[in-house]
């Protein structure tokens, strides 16, 4: 909420530009203003080095300890931008502020609740940062974070204890801090933090990872677009092949049906022409059969009248006349009816078709 607010100063450590100037950021975050520069802190460090040299010279400039001291690098600053606790302490004396070690026996005997203090300075190896109360709330003003971190009153003691377990040295800042705009505004309002800030390196790594994921996603989408086009073309080809196979199957079925009908017609014509005798006695038309039946019944009636004779004359049995045609001289029930002849013709045609199919299959 306050990350982009101008009333709360939160100096970020630009390691790639200024080196590890965390001591400078620590002091400026504590005082809430750009009060110290690297040049001013370096001047304090040189002053401390000179004071130490003068104390060592009191033992004699020709002594072994003095020559060894001159050969050693400064313990108050180095080329990376690190400054010692002595430099920070001397810088705060300008503002009437004093540093007391938090876990020292003298301070612990005072039994002061941390929430009743105003600020702390924390140090681990070469890193410094400030924890300060602004208004009625506590904030972690670590320059390695992307923004100030809100610390509740109930969590403050636990937070300091966790730092001690991690090896940090904690100093209580005693004295009146200079007035600042952030402290005045936060006396009237309270802020809420929806999302905790991240480490600067973690945020940069996350942004880099997001860019890499975005690039990979774009590549995947491009590849999927190409494969989707290929899949559509392949599906169209498969559909065309399936339709072609269906048309070929239909054509084959129609050709088989036409061939069967043709064979059936050929077989029927051959059976009628080859198997049926061309004689008037065995193959008669319906008109000829009707005329012959009429003639037969007329002849039978005449014979019955002749056998009866004149009235009073006894009738004599007579034999059934015979003719040269067995069909006419036989019993009427023996004569072939039209239905029998048609049934015989149909049966003969079907038998011929079956024989033709069998012969075709053998071929």
UniProtKB/TrEMBL annotation:
The keyword Transmembrane does not apply. It comes from the Eukaryota. Transmembrane segments: none annotated. One of its GO terms (cellular component) is nucleus. Residues 278-297 have a biased composition (Basic and acidic residues). It holds the Pfam family SUIM_assoc. Residues 265-343 are annotated as: Disordered. This is ubiquitinyl hydrolase 1. It comes from Mustela putorius furo (European domestic ferret).
